[in-house]
Amino acid sequence: MPPASTPPSGWAPPVWTPPGEIERALAEAKAREDWAAYFGVLADTRLYFEVRRDGADAEPSRTIPVFGHDPRVVGGRIWAVYTEGMLPVPDPQRVLDWQPLGWFARVWAPSDPAMIVVNPGTPCEAFLPSAPPHSAAWSQYRAERPLNRTRVSTLRVGGPLEGPVAQGLACGALLVVRHGLPWNSMAYHGNGYPMERKTLREWWGVTSREKWQVQQSALLDPEGGNPVWEFALGLRRTIARDFGGHVDTAYWRDAVARVLRDRSEGETVITPDGVTTTPTVPEAETEARIKGVQHLVGRITRYEARFRADGILDENRYVSSVDAWNFGRASGMARWGLGSRYCSLQEAENAVVEAGRASARSYKSWQDFAAGYILGRCLHFDDEEFGNWYTEMVDVHRVLMSEPDSPWLTVPFK
Q1: For 320, phi and psi rounded to 5 degrees?
Q2: Is the pLDDT of residue 116 over 70?
Q3: 188, 297, 332, 356: which has the fewest Cβ within 10 Å?
């Protein structure tokens, strides 16, 4: 019998599967000893590294790296950096930030480690001397395109490719693909701990776990959409169902006026306390409401016409609901909460799954979902300017509906 340290006959080491396209390209360049290609790939991606959480909480604009140890390096101290497919599972106390390749050479100080190690312990690992003049060999490489550019990035290892979690993550694809982040990364680090916290604070007012929970619940609430938007779209759905599909815009506007005037006269409703009658609405207030909703009808129809021209909607199709505006952001909020350490991985995953289920109850396809999301975003931000709030979504939509690796082409909607 051979010694225990000797592999059995016919044994071969397991084949390494690169988690993503970046790691594959790095491994292939390293195997060819094509270091120019290797550094070119590094320059075209985010490089994540551990930072002190207490420092980031106290002074978000200041980066305090946490250095590592590797016995293969003289002195043992290293600066470990990771590409997006090699990131660790988010830990409450271990947080990461990212920077482009050249930044590491610019900020290097004599007290820093003399060696940067890319993806330690993997087949795409590389040791980069961090001190000048040796750092000049790699620090000259620059990204030719923005690192936050729109692209589909998929994790082949470490991210779900099918099932409820994948479907829920795909509901947030318009958000993450716009920044070039892996659409199926449940263990989310995003734009780094400091930036994820800053974004939640400035855009959502989220500064604590409790506030994150409130926002997450609100986005997942089936009744949490804008009531005026949903009234207008719901009325059109009713007309379409009653009259065979096509809805004339003038008839839709007239129906808005009829329904709101009828409601203004008071309604008899059944409540937990019994039968009651709602109060009559003053005529001036009713007419103002009618005018506002009819204006909204015009906005919706003009956006839909542009959607058809830009391939977001097929001919003779309409947006059925803007629930997707909330459900898509709910998928994003789950990951933002994890990246900001306001929730656990399990809590984020549960929220992502619920976002997928809620979306499947409201829509029939990714195309329908996308149109609902984009209309909600435009009604909220764009004001018919067809500016960046709209054009960004057109670009992301085209990528998601055409790239072979897109979750909207690989993950069933239901």
Answers
A1: -85, -30
A2: yes
A3: 297
